Amino acid sequence: MNIGFIGLGKMGFPMARRLIEAGNPLVVFDNQREAMDRLAALGAEGASSPRDVADRAETVMASLPSLQASLEVATGKDGVIEGGKVRRFIDLSTVGSHMAARIHGLLAKHDIVQLDSPVSGGVGGAEKGTLAVMVSGPKAEFEAVKPALAVIGKVFFIGEKPGSAQTMKLANNLLSATAMVATSEAVVMGVKSGLDPNVMIDVINSGSGLNTASRDKFPRSVLPRSFDFGFATGLMVKDVRLALEEMRSLGLNMEVAEAVGRLWEVVIREMGPDSDFTSAVQPIEKAAGVVVGSAKGAQAVT
Ligand code: NAD
Fold first, then answer.
1. Whose C-alpha lies nearest to ligand 1, atom 25?
2. Are residues 267 and 251 in the same domain?
3. What is the pLDDT of residue 297?
4. What spacing in Å lies between the alpha carbon of 25 and ligand 1's midpoint?
5. Which of 6, 28, 64 to mutate to test the pocket of ligand 1 (most atoms within 8 A of CB)?
């Protein structure tokens, strides 16, 4: 299948690479020339704008970092909406159900079908093709693109209602965000009382506290203090804010979500939007006066 791909960042690049390796001719665009060159080296054709991509491919995918970027790429000047060949736009970004529905409505006026298709599973999942791919939109269109999406992960049809896959994704990421800060608090509590964080993580991962932060994020990025898991704090905070908006628009007030949201606002204020989201442990360490160290276990802050 001839595919256009816009946004070749931490997630977009490995997804686009898998699509090429599976034999799909690719036309690509990114604001950053360097990202396009890396894909061109693997056989992709470069384009000069989202519109140029949409002039050359019936199916256009995007993996972009903000709601504004998705809106502009899809419906702005020189956007996908102006393309001559495009029939469907698949947004792999997390934009929330309201923005997805807005883009859906604007594209529909130009006979372009929008399938929203946020993904979960991180950079590792994108590289290995093991993402959870959540799709909403017309079922027939979903069936048409399912084989291509299967190259990047396990594909789930969520429903025909525009934006419903985004609601699914926000529920997932609220749990991921909660796991990260809740595990940080639990481990910091142990370290403060003198426990070895390595032993703590081993015990949690053999016990009922097991979660994605204890299983993946702590061993790979927190205990070694590398803070390089591959998901920016700014993106996590975007998702938590979107989840809270989603709840409020449904008339819900959820206490755990509100508390998690407040904690992530502290993280973005103290660590900055470009920090890796695993650095969420650091403001919690700072407040407790300890560091969750690696080899030697608990270390008091001097
Ligand atoms: P990223 O910042 O690494 O990549 C975004 C890419 O989009 C960059 O290469 C940037 O140059 C490009 N870009 C930005 N604006 C553009 C525009 N107007 N036109 C063309 N290109 C533009 O972000 P990422 O981590 O790859 O995340 C992308 C999306 O995937 C986000 O919605 C994020 O929430 C979601 N997501 C990320 C992860 C992860 O672990 N990183 C996991 C699941 C979902």
1. 10
2. yes
3. 43
4. 21
5. 64
Residue 237, domain extent = 167-300
- In this prediction, residue 294 has a pLDDT band, given cuts at 50, 70 and 90, of low
Q: How far apart are CA 204 and CA 75, in angstroms?
A: 46
Atom of ligand 1 nearest to the CA of 7: 7
> Which two tokens mark 293?
């160290």
pLDDT, one tens digit per residue, over 178-235 is 999 999 999 999 999 999 999 999 999 999 999 999 999 999 999 999 999 999 999 9
- Among protein residues, the one whose CA lies closest to atom 8 of ligand 1: 9
Beta carbons within 8 Å of 67's beta carbon, 6+ residues apart: 95, 96, 99, 238
- Based on the domain organization, do 152 and 171 belong to the same domain? no
pLDDT of residue 1: 83
pLDDT in tens, 100-151: 999 999 999 999 999 999 999 999 999 999 999 999 999 999 999 999 999 9
Q: What's 8's domain CATH number?
A: 3.40.50.720
137 shares a domain with 152: yes
